[in-house]
UniProtKB/TrEMBL annotation:
Pfam families: CN_hydrolase. Residues 5-252 form the CN hydrolase domain. InterPro entries: C-N_Hydrolase, C-N_Hydrolase_sf, Nit1/2_C-N_Hydrolase, UPF0012_CS. This is Carbon-nitrogen hydrolase family protein. Belongs to the carbon-nitrogen hydrolase superfamily. NIT1/NIT2 family. Keywords: Hydrolase. It comes from Azospirillum doebereinerae.
Amino acid sequence: MSGVLKAACVQVNAGTELEANLASAGDLVRRARDAGADFITLPENVGWMVQGRAKIMARVRGEAEHPGVAFFAGLARETGAWILSGTLHVLLDGERVANRSYLFDPQGRAVAHYDKIHMFDVDLKGGESYRESATFRPGERAVVAGTPWGGVGLTICYDVRFPYLHRALAKAGASILTAPAAFTVPTGRAHWHTLLRARAIETGCFVVAAAQTGTHDEGRQTYGHSLIVAPWGEVLADAGEEVGFVVAELDMARVEEARRMVPALTHDRDFEVVRTGF
């Protein structure tokens, strides 16, 4: 890992229509590039935010014919930036869907993709309930992609609650972790900043987390606050709750500095778990 780059989080309020959502996201990507960003990330569900399996299945397409894949490939070529597409819904077998993140290089090549591993199956207060596993097939591969600035470890939203994934990515060469998200408002207020700062501190990585914001289909609300976090845990940029983008400078020397001071990635120990008194 070497050098300094400017990373951007694009924060959107996606509706139900793919074409309109891509156009809005594309305008923000171009503005972020004009602001000097070399690496531009977008949120989970950037193509659409719809509630329920039926609405997703009515819209989803396979990878080869997916308009979002072609759009972000072309946008990377147009801007000359590295672009993380956020996530697009990709049909796998007629019944199940991947929640998939793509990393495009400045030539528009998809150099890596990652399917969300951990499914958001939860029941929150007030009747807010989600069952991603009813529609999506969990991924089975952790992915680190090579870039001019070092390895980029790909994660998605709910994955942020699973430290072992991020530790494995760091050990496999990641110096930047991405976490495109559509966090709910209740969990965002309670946990978003803490979780992302913890993942940065534990791994000595930069964390770049673009997020959805505002009110979506059927009244679903997302938290916003796209964040860029340094390896020592400082928040370098916070997008608040408005649609837009934030940019921060990532000095990759800070990764080795943090890991040298606290080399936790080298301190793993085997241990036995003992249950007593039950």
